[in-house]
Amino acid sequence: MGKSLKSYLQFLLLLHILIQRWNPAFVCAQSGAFPAVVFIGASQSNVGVNNYFPSVARANFPPYGRDFVNGDQRGPTGRFSNGKILPDFICENFGLPFPLPYNSPDAKGEAVLQGINTASSASGWLETTDRIFGTIPGTEQVQWVRNWQRSLVDLVGASRASEIVRESPYIINLGDNDILQYFSTPPLQEKYTGEEYRKLMIDTAVSNIKDLYSGGARKFGVISAFAQGCLPVQLTLYQPTNRRQCVQKIQDFVQKYNAEYKAATQSLQSSLQGSTFYFADTFTITVDLYYNPKKYGLREETDIACCASGLFEYGPLCNSLSVGTCSNAATYFCFDAEHFTETSWRIIVNTFVEDLKKTLLA
Questions:
Q1: Which of 30, 149, 234, 306 is deepest in the core (most CB within 10 A)?
Q2: In sequence order, which ranges of 129-193 are alpha helices (DSSP H)?
Q3: Catalytic-labelled residue, pool 121, 123, 339, 344
Q4: For residue 21, is pLDDT > 70?
Q5: Of the listed 120, 121, 336, 344, which one is catalytic?
Q6: 69-70 and 73-74: which strand pairing?
Q7: Which listed residue (43, 81, 121, 123) is catalytic?
Q8: Which domains does the chain have, with CATH numbers?
Q9: Please, which residues bridge with residue 69 across strands?
Q10: 16 is known as an active-site residue
Q11: Is residue 121 flagged as an active site residue?
């Protein structure tokens, strides 16, 4: 082989390698789609934050986590489900490890380089939501995230920290508990009309998202409110004799909130230079799971959860002594009366996660 031909072939090989390494699809496959991921939310995203401070809103005991497996980790972790939940399935798709709870003793040093989770069960955007249970509201969670952003500088230097903050998705999953508190608290309904209360929630969300943006965040995945009117505990509270229909007044409120919240995120994307937002519609799929369970391989009685009687128990009332708990949660819509099973979570996340990733990578 002539020297010039050999040099030319070596050049082509080098060029091919460089192109592959700069190809986004190659980068995603080799090292995850993003450098890190951050979760802000309530029990749908909580992986154990409430374990580390006085709170009754905990799930770090059986039968919670009885099907949970993450490497060598097994059993109850604080997740309100029999197994994996929303952040876990998102992280698996992103090619990233499950972020640790922000206040965990293990959440330090290199362990937090690939993200953090501040989600606190029973919390909401509003400071007063379910504080009686011991929660970390959204505004305080955002300050935790700001602390994490600043801590990266000490770990990897200012330039790399700025890149991690800028390129990482911030998955926000708050609002459901604010909505449920409104319906269960007559003084709130006397103080605010539904429209006024939704505006209060969204204004608080927008303010906190702007705070994250000021810290360098640019990629936001916003999770809609779920079909709260279809959950067993709400059926028990509001229409115990008509459990085959979701509670319409809650459903109507949630749909209006989701539409207004989505519009607010679209406005933010227009006003916050360089930002990208993806609004995940989880309402539609949770309604469909409730009304058409056979389509997804679930049992027909979606109004009854796996744990205990399945009508109203969650948190401390769903425990290892609960009588009647099902032997196999895989076919249930909900594990306890307020939270979904691992099966439902897999289905829910699969409806939006690819579009979420593509939008935030674009």
A1: 306
A2: 138-156, 158-167, 176-184, 186-191
A3: 339
A4: no
A5: 336
A6: antiparallel
A7: 43
A8: 34-227+248-283+343-361 (3.40.50.1110)
A9: 74
A10: no
A11: no
